[in-house]
Design brief:
Oligomer: single chain
Number of strands: 0
Radius of gyration: 22 Å
Distance between the termini: 31 Å
Structural class: mainly alpha
Shape: elongated
Order of helices and strands: HHHHHHH
Length: 173
């Protein structure tokens, strides 16, 4: 149970770290993504997706060229992802005692949905892209839910194990 809980926590941590480090080189990363999308056949990358990727790429490049200090905001975004990943070190070490961090992570994943649905339209984000953003909350919640399941089983098994340890200690005394 412990190994399974830790496995899903590591999956989440790796996802957060990868998400965080990819926010630092957003200018180069968006250019790379557009190049890949342009090479795909139209049935694998519809025109509206390619158009959006071009719009995003142009916006990032022009903004960062003219106003490089704006990139500092995505540096903080990257830092936030890395910091959130670090918060899961506690549950990784002692899942039962730190189950509250997993609950907090599930709450944060749920919070992605209203944020995307409210702020997306306010910022001119296409609805289909808001669904992509929402999927990050769903994909983040999946390993957390699986870890939570195993941690709860550990929690229920812990009192029985403590009783057994206590009986063994009393027998040796």
């Amino acid at each position: 149970m412990l190994r399974r809980a830790r496995f899903w926590l590591v999956v989440l941590i790796v996802g957060l770290v990868l998400s965080g480090v990819t926010a630092f080189p957003l200018d180069h990363g968006s250019a790379w993504l557009v190049r890949i999308a342009e090479r795909l056949p139209p049935d694998q990358c519809p025109g509206f997706v390619l158009d959006w990727l071009h719009t995003v790429r142009t916006g990032i490049h022009e903004t960062w060229t003219r106003y490089p200090f704006i990139a500092y905001g995505t540096d903080w975004l990257a830092f936030a992802h890395l910091t959130i990943a670090a918060a899961f070190w506690g549950p990784l070490r002692d899942p039962v005692r730190n189950i509250w961090v997993v609950r907090w992570g599930l709450l944060a994943c749920a919070g992605i949905i209203p944020l995307a649905l409210i702020c997306g339209p306010l910022r001119g984000i296409p609805f289909w892209w808001s669904l992509v953003d929402i999927s990050f909350g769903v994909f983040g919640a999946l390993p957390l839910l699986l870890a939570y399941r195993w941690i709860r089983r550990l929690e229920r098994a812990a009192p029985a194990a403590a009783v057994e340890r206590g009986a063994a200690t009393a027998a040796t005394a």
